[in-house]
Queue: 3 jobs
Job 1
Amino acid sequence: MRDGYRFEFGAFDKPDEPKVQALKPLEEAAEVFVAWQDCDDMRYSPIMTARRVYRESLIDECMDVVQAVVSLLDAEGFTQEDVDAAIERCNERNRERGRL
């Protein structure tokens, strides 16, 4: 198993309206899929600079998702303790499913 990534993300100083805040991770996730499709199309390209650009776009879109989720958690008042407990539950579900 790979070690987990460690992120240091702050929430937005000015959260959006609740419904907008809740929809933002979904919007950003759709952008991740589009970036992944572009990156996948370039996977075997002999042009290394093009591949790097698409990979950078993909990771940037992924970080936008993380930022949107962190901001949603903060706007809803979740604490680090809540997040840690949720991560452990998620890891346990994935262990039970044989993913970890």
Note: DSSP finds three helices and no strands in the chain.
Job 2
Amino acid sequence: MARMEDLPEGEREMLRTLALPEFGTTPFVCGKSLSERRVSIISTAALQRRSDRVFDTGENSYRVIPGNVDPNDVVMSHGSANFDRTGFQQDLNICFPLERLHELAADGVIGSVADFHYSVSGAVSPERNEKTAHEIARLMKREGVDTVLLVPI
């Protein structure tokens, strides 16, 4: 990830002037406490198991990653030449924090970790992923997931 001080001065100034949205601190919905929630991950890092088909350029489908997957069995087929994969190669939790979720569940911070998690390609426009999003939501609802950790890459 680029740090502000590493960017050219012109880019830094442009970023400083961008209007950022402000969000209130009151949630727009109420739900059960975090310690009662079943959590699943959606990552846009185009992740899949080694045995799965890699994401093709522009593909708007998804891959299912089991909650008990060996981190060494997860690979990335994100297609951007500008994407730095070194963090992912050192620790899957950078873009798919499954081990951290299991730790939170063991500590009672969250209720449980879903049996299945999902990855899509972030190189696809959200409009093209709408059908995919509905399919993933259907699968999550069937599994009793009530909280999603979205990890945009």
Note: DSSP finds four helices and seven strands in the chain.
Job 3
Amino acid sequence: MEWKEDSLPCFGMLNSALIDFENKQIFGWHLSVIIDFEETVENGMPSEEEREIVDPRDG
């Protein structure tokens, strides 16, 4: 999913494998993770420094 909020790009992912899951009433919750970056570069994407905070690489 893609949308804009406050003129900035937002992205979301849904697990479509659960569409036909029959026990939705047992697992009636969802997880939402929102990361607000303070430093953005072109197109509202996070700067290298901020990306490294949430997605560190070992090499």
Note: The chain has one helix and two strands.
